[in-house]
Amino acid sequence: xxxxxxxxxxxxxxxxxxxxxxxxxxxxxxxxxxxxxxxxxxxxxxxxxxxxxxxxxxxxxxxxxxxxxxxxxxxxxxxxxxxxxxxxxxxxxxxxxxxxxxxxxxxxxxxxxxxxxxxxxxxxxxxxxxxxxxxxxxxxxxxxxxxxxxxxxxxxxxxxxxxxxxxxxxxxxxxxxxxxxxxxxxxxxxxxxxxxxxxxxxxxxxxxxxxxxx
Length: 214
Hints:
It is built from 5 helices and 7 strands; from the N terminus they run H-H-E-H-E-E-E-H-E-H-E-E. The chain is of the alpha+beta class and 214 residues long. Strands 1-2-3-4-5-7-6 form a 7-stranded mixed beta sheet, with helices on both faces.
C-alpha cells in the first residue's frame, strides 16, 4: 500500500515538508532563547545570578553635640573649611556657638548616619523667640550625591517648627557654592548681614510654614 503512494511528486512534497519543519523549529528556538535568558536572571551558561546592591540605611536623629560621633563630624567639617576657604579657617575666630546652645529645649543637634557610620551633622541654636540660627551643617564628601544635605536641612527645619520657631537664619562662605544652591532651592532668600561672622559672605533667611514630610 505504501508503494502505491510513493511517487516523485509525493517524495518532493515530503522532503519540502521536512525542511520547512526543521527551519520552523530553528526560528522558534531563536525566539525563545532571549526569554529563557531573562528567566534565569542573566545567569548564562554558568548559572550564576547577578548580585543586587544592598539597600543603604540612612538615619537622621538628635544626638548630643558633645558626643564622640558629633565631635568627629565637627572636626571633619572644620578640616574641610580649612582646605576650602581663602586663608583657611580657624574655629576660634568664628562665631562658635557653645555646644550647650545646641541642646533642647531651644536647641538641637542632628547626626546623619549612612549604614551606621556618622557622615553629617547640623545644629540649631536660638537667636530670638521667633528665629533659630542654623550652624555647622555638613555632609562628608564620600556620602554626597544621595540627597542627604537636603534631607538634613528639612529635618532641621521640622525640628525648628516643633520648638516654636517661625524663622531660620544662616550664613555661608562664598566658596561653598553647593551650599548656596541648596539654600536658594529650598526657599531661603538672601538678606542683609545679621551678624559679624568673619567667614561669611552670604546671609540667608527662611520663614517656615507647616511641618514638612521627611
